[in-house]
Specification:
This protein is mainly alpha-helical. The protein has one domain. It has four helices and two strands. A two-stranded antiparallel ribbon has the order 1-2. A hairpin with a 5-residue loop joins strand 1 and strand 2. The chain starts with a helix and ends in a 17-residue tail after the last helix.
């Protein structure tokens, strides 16, 4: 996953407040960092995306976008 794909999914799946969540929500799975901090620290975007989805309990069917075919996670 590219960084641009990560942010597209944030916008698509989490909606208008998604970027704020990525910036502000501290995630245990990312060593008590926000998604933005983890990305800035060089974490793979797909790992950050999965951690964010897990924390927000995003249903598996929606994790790869509302209008996209379901990918294997």
């Amino acid at each position: 996953m590219r960084y641009s794909e990560f942010w597209e999914l944030v916008d698509d799946v989490l909606g208008p407040g998604g970027r704020t969540v990525a910036r502000d929500l501290v995630l245990d799975a990312l060593a008590d960092r926000t998604a933005q901090q983890a990305l800035d620290d060089g974490e793979e975007p797909v790992r950050v995306w999965r951690a964010l989805c897990d924390a927000l309990e995003v249903p598996p069917a929606l994790r790869w976008g509302r209008d996209r075919p379901r990918r294997r996670s």
